[in-house]
Amino acid sequence: MVPSRDCVVLIAQYEGCKLVAYLCPAGIPTIGYGATWHIDANRKVALGDKITQRQADKWLNMTIAKVAGEVENLAKVLTQGQLDALVSFTFNLGSTYLANSTLLELHRKGLYAQASEEFKKWNKARVGGVLKVLPGLTARRNAERLLYIKQVP
């Protein structure tokens, strides 16, 4: 199973694309569609880095493919909507957070309605050392939740 266009669009929409490195709300140097690792140079992104739109799109697709494999290994049984939602979630947070989440635990038990509610809890980021609710993350988690419950058995 591969992530659908819905997944790619959701990630691109919420990550946005910047071709010059910037600090994300959590203070991490970021470029392209939320990349913190300079794939072509095999190093962390640094402020001042620049990439082309072609590189940004390539990195987005490479990262989505990698994340999809991680999600499938962790979640095992997935509908298309669940895969798409969990790939977006994991793209944003990383597979360690998914692996250790109540969201994944409930998903594996087949408690999909309860699992979908877990997305709402992941709307915070550390800003200036303090955990804060971010409106963009709240909107993203809601969009992921809606994808997750789409076509649930």
Give a description of the structure.
By secondary structure, the protein is α+β, with helices and mostly antiparallel strands. The chain has one domain (5-149): Lysozyme (Orthogonal Bundle), CATH 1.10.530.40. The protein contains 7 helices and 6 strands, in the order αββββαααααββα. The strands form 3 sheets. A two-stranded antiparallel sheet has the order 1-2. The chain has a two-stranded antiparallel sheet with strand order 3-4. The chain is globular and about 45 Å long.
CATH class: Mainly Alpha
Indicate the radius of gyration in whole angstroms. Answer: 15 Å
Structural class: alpha+beta
Strand order of the largest sheet: 1-2
Q: Would you give the CATH topology?
A: Lysozyme
Which parts are unreliable, with pLDDT below 50 for 5 consecutive residues or more? none
Amount of helix:
40-55%
Which SSEs are present, and which pair or pack?
Blueprint: H1 5-15, E1 18-23, E2 29-32, E3 37-38, E4 43-44, H2 53-75, H3 80-93, H4 95-99, H5 102-108, H6 112-118, E5 124-127, E6 130-133, H7 135-149
Antiparallel strand pairs: 1-2, 3-4, 5-6
Helix pairs in contact: 1-3, 2-3, 3-7, 5-6, 6-7
